[in-house]
Amino acid sequence: MERRRKQLEESVSQLDTADLQDPSETITLTKTRLKEKLDEDMKRLAAIEKQMLASPDRQISLTDRSMATSDRGSGVVGYNVKTTVDTENHLIVAHEVTNVGSDRLQLARAAKEAKAALHTEKLDAVADRGYFNGEEILACEQASITVTLPKPMTSGAKLEGRFGKRD
Predict the structure, then answer these.
(1) Tens digit of each residue's pLDDT (9 = 90 or more) over 146-155
(2) Phi and psi (nearest 5°) for 48?
(3) DSSP per residue over 127-165, as a string?
């Protein structure tokens, strides 16, 4: 036991002596590679900073796509969450998270998922006007899903100070 302790002490002493000597070629190469990697990373981050500062809302996401908003050429980093609810039992029967800002092309898929989850042959679906799209409504009808949703308000008359279609 004593012999083993002396061997360990001698090994530690040799390592300490080696540490005090000139760095090895391997350490020098490692330091050089790390410096090069750091320089590359700094250049990449500078490019990202330039891109971020050029964006209208001064934000950028490296993992998520920008979700389009109603203003042309604008966007926000975020998600659009849809839930389909069974109104009789007040339970969520389907859900989806997307980064598509508009609901216009989401109706048929959501309704079909709900129909499948409820194991029913026919389904009555109610949605808000954001889901209004003729092709989506037709796809629902072909899948035995009756859809009730209001038509969107598309008249620009009120913005121009005139009476709108409803008036």
Answers:
(1) 999 998 877 7
(2) -65, -40
(3) --GGG--HHHHHHHHHTTEEEE-PPP----TGGGTS--S
Q: CB-based burial of residue 130 (10 Å sphere; 0-12 exposed, 13-18 middle, 19+ buried)? A: middle
The alpha helices in the chain, defined as continuous H runs, are 2-20, 25-54, 107-118, 134-142
Q: What does the domain layout of the chain look like in residue ranges?
A: 2-54, 78-148
Residues 130-164: tens digit of each pLDDT: 899 999 999 999 999 999 999 887 777 777 778 77
- In order of 31, 89, 115, 127, 153, the CA distances from 136 in angstroms are 60, 26, 15, 12, 18
Q: Quick check: 107 and 140 in contact, CB under 8 A? A: yes
Cβ 164 vs Cβ 157: under 8 Å: yes
